[in-house]
Amino acid sequence: MSERGALRGLRILMWVVIAIEVPVYLVWLVEVGYLTGQQLPRGDVARWAPPVLLPPTAVLFCVMAGWTWWLSVVAGTRSPLREQWNVASLVFVAVFSVFCGVASVGDPSVSVGLLSAAVTGLGMIGLFFIPAAASRQLPDVIRRRSGRTSDEPS
Question: C-alpha angle with apex 96: 29 to 17, nearest 5 degrees?
């Protein structure tokens, strides 16, 4: 019974983290995307591209990467995070997210860059782990993985 409670607690913890990180990240993306776009000249259609395109792109790419990673974990195959397209999509989201965070302020500084990197990292992690947290196979994978490590000599 304690194993079942621990697995339930893990799933609840994952959803709490996701429920906090993801909305903060998406609202932040809209805000910094808007502020970054407003620095472009009036009448330029690209002014609205960052706040409109960056949040759905982040969700799509991070959840897609998380989904392919989770499927490989369930299947016990090689991690798709070694594939260039998967890493490239995550790097793309991270670079543009941090860029908009830094470009959105009038006087960029190291602290702004660090804050942008922290919000980006936490939000991307939350999005990445949605497929694992939602999977019915999570307990089986954890049991299978813990069985491997407990059988090995210390």
Answer: 50
